[in-house]
């Protein structure tokens, strides 16, 4: 059976796996972004705290994804929980690092101007600092998403959702008629999703970043 014949006969399952893969990455990136920006907001004013946050999240990336998911299985079980936890943790570093860099790079004169017109610290953060730090934050989100697209395939080890199931089934049945087709369909699906997500981020950047800031 050729690759395209395999895709034609398995298109319903492939579409389901693709949707689950995209959904898992998207939801975990939302969690990683919220948590990462929160960590950055709490730590960016202090040199040691910011370094601690960056180092701690970087340390997570040194743990092999298969090992981390394996360690989570006895604690939270199989399926979605270990997938969500692992992907969220792996997505933190680019967001935290870029958010800290972006917040520290805000022009002090603009912060002083905001103070001068009586803005509270919270208002200054949400109306001045975070909007100006948004371009590097978005870059961090793009990098993290590309990472998670590949790491999410490992979730199949813990019966997680996504295109990794196709890859694992193909590897487990090497030598069979459709093993290569299974691995190839899962791999190409992940690559296409990564490109689509990145294109979406480019569009979001054009819609949310003013021309002055882009310049």
TrEMBL record:
Gene3D superfamilies: MetI-like (1.10.3720.10)
Keywords: Membrane, Transmembrane, Transmembrane helix, Transport
Regions crossing the membrane: 24-44, 56-77, 143-163, 183-204
Family annotation (Pfam families): BPD_transp_1
Keyword Transmembrane helix carried by entry: yes
Signal peptide: none
Record-stated family: Belongs to the binding-protein-dependent transport system permease family.
Listed name of the protein: ABC transporter permease
Protein's organism: Streptomyces mooreae
